[in-house]
Amino acid sequence: MSMQSMALLGAFLAVLLALAWPLGRLLARVGEGGPVPGFGWLAPLERLLYRAGGVAPDTGMGWKSYATALLVFNGLGALFVYGVQRLQAFLPLNPQALGNVSPDSSFNTAVSFVANTNWQGYGGEQTMSYLTQMVALSGQNFFSAATGIAVAFALIRGFSARSAASIGNFWADLTRSTLYVLLPLSLVFAVFLMGQGVVQNFNSYQEVQLIEPVAYAAPEAKVAATQTIAMGPVASQEAIKLIGTNGGGFFNANSAHPYENPSALSNFAQMLAIFLIPAALCFAFGRMVGDTRQGWAILGAMSLMFVVAAGVVMNAEQAVHPQLAALGVDQGASSLQAGGNMEGKEARFGIAASSLFAAVTTAASCGAVNAMHDSFTPIGGMLPMLLMQLGEVVFGGVGSGLYGMLVFAIMAVFIAGLMIGRTPEYLGKKIQAHEMKMTSIAILVTPLLVLGGTALAVMLDAGRAGIANPGAHGFSEILYAFSSAANNNGSAFAGLSANTPFYNTMLAIAMWFGRFAVIVPVLAIAGALAAKPRLKENAGTMPTHGPVFIGLLVGVVMLVGVLNYVPALALGPVVEHLQLYTK
What we know:
Elements: H1 3-32, H2 43-53, H3 63-87, H4 103-114, H5 124-127, H6 130-160, H7 170-196, E1 206-215, E2 223-229, H8 234-243, H9 264-288, H10 292-318, H11 322-326, H12 350-363, H13 378-389, H14 400-420, E3 425-426, E4 429-430, H15 433-459, H16 461-464, H17 471-486, H18 501-530, H19 547-579
Antiparallel strand pairs: 1-2, 3-4
Helix pairs in contact: 1-7, 1-9, 3-4, 3-6, 3-18, 4-18, 6-7, 6-8, 6-18, 7-8, 9-10, 9-12, 10-12, 10-13, 10-19, 12-13, 13-17, 13-19, 14-15, 14-19, 15-17, 15-18, 17-18, 17-19
GO molecular function: hydrolase activity; P-type potassium transmembrane transporter activity; potassium ion binding
Transmembrane segments: 66-84, 142-159, 179-199, 268-289, 295-314, 349-373, 393-420, 441-460, 506-529, 549-571
Pfam families: KdpA
């Protein structure tokens, strides 16, 4: 790694920690259900929302009721997003007169935004009207993020409760997470982005004169003297896209577009926004269970894995390309390859910031991109893929990163209990057969979706038809797509033609079950733990806040995550990397 990369990574982690600590205190107050300091002026609005919805926020729910409410709410949200897309030609705020979205693309997009995946098989500025972007897509950006926070709160209550039948109230958690956390943060961040140059308007697309006309290739040899520049309410969607770890861009180029990500400062702030709530939830977890050391331990495990992964990506992208070096291609200061692999990267960000962004967005369940991952080196592209395949628990998504990591923590203490011959305990709760069954389902469902979907795609003509690149790289494109969908990330290698009925359907199935087939077992674990008494520590209790536990947790995440995918990775990026050195 270059000194620039190390300095950028160090500054990023330092600022993240400084911002996440106070936000963690706020999140803890939100999850505990009491008054939120500094936001008392929003309390009347909260009560009004409860009355309008007929919700009794103090009424606790068992895990089954909580899960039912969550599934019904998100199912209705998917139907709403689907309907808006199918009718957008007849709805207002459509100055470009864009037509209705096709049924299979509408289905894929509806599931994608409800599942906090935001996979986009379409170009946003050419497909979605302003109303669709603002009401349907941005609305689900808030609700899907709030759903993840709600599940994290429910699982934390399972650990902190003492023989309770309730894990909280889904409607209250959803409302408070949106009102006190997501809306204020998004408002502040949207204003900051507008100050940096992100557009926010309802103007029609602008036709502007080019300073220098562009001549197209034969046969027509046309000369273009004008260019169409897309407009729209971008900053408002951009803010929650990042803070909610959603990732869906207003424009097709996502955060590589200058109207979504204009400057080096906005790029740095966007990376912070992606990790902010996932990091803060670790501190909220420690406060809510009554032991801040537990939050630091989870954060330490996440940070350790992230630093290693980010370092590998940065190093891989800054290394000299062996085939270009063998050809004697100049890689000096004036070269396109200056300092490493600049292909697919924005010049205003460079290799270090683009590589770090790739690691951040795939470690979190975000999927926003400021460079084309399809143009990364094989190892540089494999690490973002692997970060997703780990279950996106290296910070992970809003809420989903914490509850995913806590699931691995349960497995870690179970393995430790087997090794020392004691009944496993975590935070004073015994981990027994039921919890381990639910843990196994939560961990294994995504590899089943990823590997099963990839296998079907490479076996069927409809799947192979979308491959733009033959051989190992084409296989990597499919593997990346299903890894992204099943783990609710949403980024893509961008070389796979996935806006087809086959991929829209298959990826939508992976996104839905990758989200909710994990959430339901997590809520079942929360309900089982809440019903158990919380035991006091004794001389035989395994500490779960020190370096030994952090090392055990990292080892379990790496072993369970990596072993599922080693054969598939060997067929894709590993083979492609070795081919770089063949004569």
